[in-house]
Amino acid sequence: MKILVTGGAGFIGSHTCDRLLSMGHEVVVLDALTPPVHRDGQPAYLSMEADFYVGDVRNRDLVTNLLRRVDAVYHFAAYQDYLPDFSRFSDVNVVSTALLYEIIVAERLDLARVVVASSQSAMGEGLYWCPVDGEQTPGMRPESALAASQWDIPCPACGGPLELRPTPERVSHPQNAYGMSKLGEEMVAINLGRRYDIPTVALRYSIVQGPRQSVYNAYSGACRIFCLSYLLGRAPTLYEDGGAIRDYVNIDDVVDANVLVLSDDRAVGCVFNVGGGQAVTTREFADVVMRQYGSALPGVVTGEYRFGDTRHILSEIAALRALGWEPRRTPADSVAAYAAWLDGMDGLDGVLAEADRRMRALGVVRKAGT
∠ CA(79), CA(299), CA(209), 5° rounding? Predict the structure, then answer.
């Protein structure tokens, strides 16, 4: 097949392009090469076998011309930083997806598949269990609780303790602008796909880790932040109390899922979680990175937090497992691969400080008790 990959110069997109090319597919890449992710323009890792176009996924004429030439689409292009420019999330993530389907319908294109990249953040705090009141999907934590270092979420019904449960795809409760835009993108893709018989799949990625994850985002995954800290000989900061739970999924496992849903018709019309299958606290993940770098400096709790963060989230991945997919790599595998990719890279000294300054100036990083 000939396949269009929007955002194909990015982290997930470029790895997916490599796999598709290795499988014998032709690949067309559309990427705006937008900073800060692509601060230095076209990345060296982008395969020369891909037919590459620089442009915006909201450019109707450009997207129309590319769609006419292909048999399937992976839509990875997105705005994904963690900053309070709320309208940009919806403009890039939701509008581009709506335009994609608008063109497909207007041109009467017969595509074998459209695969849309969603996010675990579409589920928000996720699913919990209260021994008294049963299943709960709590709302966002109030600023007053965070400022008082009250990190864990009480039951919304009785105020008692909650137990985290793996969150299935039926839960959609986003609490930040990025998550809201990704849920909107899902809804546009799945519903228009069903209405106009366009075979569509949406994949909710957990925290994806591995090489090519940009070092320049103001806000990005723990792997980047912790690896850069230890590479520079510093102990990383652990937000809140270091006990926030996430699940981390390796980039190669993500690509396995991407290519699976391209050909498996059981996936059509569905949203799937793509997670690591393991609950890992921030401190535990920092310890994995510490061991990778042979450091004796554990992560440091400073009483700071990121405003808008969820406390815990763990994706239920039974639905994708039922199609034969399995997360086969560990967080340690992801960290080792990312550390190897960083090794010898120039210009890293000021990256963390620059990102930290930017998030503090915008009120994203705050300190309890102030």
Answer: 35
